[in-house]
Amino acid sequence: MKNYTHSKISRFFRYQKAVFFGFFLLVIGCATSTHPKPEGLTEPPFELIRFEHLFFGDLDTPLDQLKSKFPYFFPSQTPDDIWEAKRTDSLQQALFKATQSLFKDDLKQRTSYVLRYANYYFPNDKLPSKVITLLTDVDYSLRAVDADSLLLISIDTYLGESHHLYNGIPQYIKNSLITEHLESELIDALSDRYIVKTNSRSFLNRMVTHGKRLLLHDYLAPDLAAYRHIQYTQNEWDWAVTHETDVWRYFVDNELLFSSDESLRFRFLSQSPYSKFYSYLDENSPGRIGQWIGYRMVKAYQKRTGASLEKVLAANAKEILKKSRYNP
Question: Is residue 30 part of a domain?
């Protein structure tokens, strides 16, 4: 367990019509939601631990005491003097002080919100018993990590897009480093528990896998605004709605669905300032548009077949494409 956890630690007509239609669907979806209210759900027991407070704030706490209580944070090959120096390092202390104003009194409440729904929809799954916040030198690739019985939150990756400590980070990445994305990151971390893995490297399979993850968001944070799940702005979401037909037609006409070309992942699935069609569609397009198309396809599949969440998450990509009849 120690090695497993440590390995995981170490390491989102046209414009007016489309916008109105997207807003209409959002309103209707909220009005007819069948998701239970969070206050009516059982809260799974978990302990919230602010490790950064213990390590960087309570400097009188002996290092040996911390190592004994949190052995998975201290690789044996790292000498104690490295850890001691890190505790008082000026940059680390600046990061620590900056995080003190984050989440104030609602961190546990917002984490509980996600875990309540996860417990409700997956009652047989044993959820993490400890949620631990820590500094990770602004490792924005691992903003939340599910490590079996631990759920880790990189608290220094939520300081806000304009924070001076993020100087040097590309703006499109800084735009995502905001507290509003906490629930989204927690769900992404937990998603590997519920989505059936495949070995297919096709563009279709990758889109659908992301689509399943985003569908999971609808269930584990049903009150979150739709554009927050994929970590878009409202304008980016509106662009996706407006150009959904154009994007899909581009994928089909260029025979991309069953391609395993690795460049497609970087062009349409990975975090980037915009999606790369190498055409007029590039302008104002949000990155990761392939994830969004995968989500729309998965939603269409569920609506047409009436499949449960578990069945949707287990369905293969070709079945979802065929039975969804997705063709915006």
Answer: no
